Amino acid sequence: MNHKLNKEYSEIAIYEGLLPIKVTPFYKTKIEAESSVLGELGPLWRVAFPSEDRISLRSPNEVEDFVGDRSNTLGQTGTIMKYANRVLFMATSRCFGHCQYCFRTSMLAGSAAAGGSEMETESLNHLLEFLSMPPTRPPSPAAFRRTPYLSPRV
Fold first, then answer.
1. CB of 46 within 8 A of CB of 39?
2. Domain that holds residue 107
3. Do 41 and 7 fall within a single domain?
4. CA-CA distance, 81 to 89, in Å (whole number)?
5. What's the pTM value of the predicted model, to 2 decimals?
């Protein structure tokens, strides 16, 4: 494993709000087997460990919440609602491993640094109350299109 690159990423992760490197023992054995054949550029390795591009490449139009998860989160419930007829409920902010390509990094990084958290009873009750409302209450999907980076069909 590229310990120098991992150390550099770990330092950057702290101030850029990225998820720390976290790999399960099982997945690590799979990565090691793959790396013996493909080196450190194989797909399993790139999912779990940062590449030089991950650290250095930046786009002038980068948007922190590029998929709109944070702006569509319902309070502190761990619930994302981008569309009137769909709800994504995250019962925990803990992951067994952190993926370099996680699109919920901006939501999970703070809780990962704090060790993650389980949903509190109060938040769960709030979610259940919200879900019991008539389906006509939530806003339409058009209300959530806030950035020009999303296709109108998304």
1. no
2. 70-144
3. yes
4. 9
5. 0.58
